[in-house]
Amino acid sequence: MIRALTLTAVLLLTAPACSDAGIAATPVGQIHSPTTGADASLLADALAEAEALPRLNSIIIARDGQILAERVYRGPSLDTPVNIKSASKSVLAALAGIAIGEGMIEGPDQPISDFLGDRFPSNADPRLATVTVGHLLSMQAGLGSTSGGKYGAWVSSRNWVRYALAQPFEAEPGGRMIYSSGTSHLLSAVLTKAADRSTHASAVAWVGQPLEIAIPQWPADPQGIYFGGNDMLMSPRGLLSFGELYRNDGVHQGRRVLPEGWVEASWNGRGTSRWSGNPYGYGWWIKTVGNRPVYFAWGYGGQMVFVVPSLDMTVVMTSDPSPVSERTDHVDRLHQLLDQKLIPAAERGA
């Protein structure tokens, strides 16, 4: 069943109608107008509110694979790859699932020592040998974080993998969540060894080609291992296709891309953020709006992919990724836009 949107006025901006994401696309800025799918008034309010957010670059709202509305407020087009920041971690988790499905990794319980043992510190904490692929995916490795105030020293180091592996343990492996891009980068190193090719090559072959989306090269560490936790490049329409892949349980246009059961495993909360209180699965954050589970990829500055399975809805938002000198409420306002406007609009239009 394809849902659409009731709206009398169709707003158009001049832009090409081609799509990077393998999902029916229309000119940038169009609000579609068949019959059902979202409450027109609430959706119009949501788009007006979105336009007023100075750091929001684009938004795409889809139900059942049908785009209800898409806008570019500033920045590049919907088909131009942009820096998705830490939403890269969700894509990396998909690659890990595919590697497991291909037998390159035995499963989430396989120790990372099987892949990175030669890079362990000579005086390694014995607990390092018990860290598994699943611990990297769920940020439960126990190793000290290389994010936040420790990020600069880590990315300035000569060997990012060895630096991350040498961090002191702050929790037991499998215990509390410690958010760290270094932990995700270790997963990129595992994938590089397991697949015997770069993480970028795997991303193109396993995600880009099946979904017909562009994934350009992104930064790598001094040893050539592609950044596992940050700076991946995908277009807003590419992100929509990626979110739809998860909404459809790993199947794209009748072809299984992710192993059966991987989406369910990824959306099973394991650790919990001490900052937001949100559970974290394998590369995906989890929250509840009303009684509806919402799963989301989240990148610095407001690079968001929201999936609401009970409403067959996927929402993509991209924002200015440049650092700000003071903390803003931009990401909170993106969540409010989804929770208070877009979900109610979909509920009323169901």
Account of the 3D structure:
The structure is a single chain. The chain is an alpha+beta fold and 350 residues long. It is 32% helix and 15% strand. A hairpin with a 2-residue loop joins strand 9 and strand 10. The longest helix is centred in the C-terminal third of the chain and has 20 residues, at 330-349. It is globular and about 65 Å long. The chain starts with 39 loop residues before the first helix and ends with a helix. Residues 1-19 and 21-35 have low confidence and may be disordered.
Strand arrangement, major sheet: 2-1-12-11-10-9
Could you report the average pLDDT, rounded to the nearest whole number? 91
**Share of helix, binned:** 25-40%
- Structural class of the helix and strand makeup? alpha+beta
Q: What gap, in angstroms, lies between the N and C termini?
A: 11 Å
How much is the radius of gyration in Å?
20 Å
Biggest sheet features = 6 strands, antiparallel
Bin the strand percentage: 15-25%
Unreliable parts = 1-19, 21-35
What gross morphology would you assign?
globular
* DSSP, total strands: 12
Instruction: Spell out the helices and strands N to C.
Output: HEEEHHHHHHHEHEEHEEEEEEH
Task: Note the total helix count.
Answer: 11
